[in-house]
Design brief:
Elements: E1 8-10, E2 13-15, E3 19-21, H1 30-38, E4 43-45, E5 49-50, H2 51-68, H3 88-100, E6 105-110, H4 114-125, E7 131-136, H5 147-164, E8 169-173, H6 180-189, E9 194-197, E10 205-207, E11 212-214, H7 226-235, E12 242-246, H8 252-261, E13 265-268, H9 270-275, H10 278-293, H11 320-327, H12 329-335
Parallel strand pairs: 3-4, 3-13, 4-6, 5-6, 6-7, 7-8, 8-9, 9-12, 12-13
Antiparallel strand pairs: 1-2, 10-11
Helix pairs in contact: 4-5, 7-8, 8-10
Length: 339
Amino acid sequence: MENNKLKTRYMGIELKNPVIIGSSNLVSSNDNLLRLQDAGAAAIVYKSLFEEQVQLEQLEFDHEMEMYSERNAEMTSLFPNIKHAGPEEHLLKLRKAKESLEIPVIGSLNAVTKTNWIEYAKQIAQTGVDGLEINFYAGPGEFKKSSESIENEKLALLQEIKSVIKIPVAVKISPYYTNTLDFINRLDEAGADSVILFNRLFQPEIDIEKMEHVYPFNLSGNGDYGLTLRYAGLLYGNIKSDIVANGGIFSGDDIIKLILAGASSVQVVSAIYKHKTDVIKKMLYELETWMNRKQFDSIEEFKGKLAKKNLTDPFAYKRAQYVDIIMNSEVFTKKYELI
């Protein structure tokens, strides 16, 4: 029997509960998809289609074709030995994922050039998915490009994608904008159906013995949702887009905190990697147990209850928090004294 009290919305789509599986390799196999659904996941964001990946696959294809171009018919196979050839394999798997699951499936796209953003968005929409998540990130590298021009490009791109596909569009962003609140507000005005806070970006590391760059697979840790909680609390009631929390969410208590701040749902990945699919059931049990104890009959009853808009304390989400910690530093120092 479906539990209606946990229902919420993501990019305008009704979900049976707030737990969404974020984009990752967790969804690479059909067995994993079914396990996640059976464990209680309300929706699944399929792993991203990356433009760079497609370009590399196309280069591999071109190279293989060149190798065969001067051979005669008796020497060549009709099919060159390549692993992939563009986005077709990804789109086929995405379509199969949608067909095999009962819960909503969201496509994810991470492109670079405007042409490919538009073309791949249309191809993903044609697989029958319920929505599209686009990942906006401007990597450092251009010293003379203004923050305003970067943001304007993203906004124009969102509007164009919205104009060529009919399914809802969510925007996943990093927090690294000059004024993140203003940018999110402009995304909302440009038609974003949901805003996901925030992209967890992989950063380079250096091996000092080998003196070379390495790229570790860094999972989120408990409590990494702090920045997301702040922005959810500031945004709630000020934008129409659904607010989705991402990063460092490992328990039902974490979900409760983020919904109280203003999120309508959460995305989890690291929790699944670390604790397997059963953690979803545990999260939902903790959430529902708390709601029963507090006598809430729906998510909407407490969503945003502790957002800035609903607080009388004007400093809850401002710098005064830092000042208060400093003023009470003696208590903190005694608790963690070195000797």
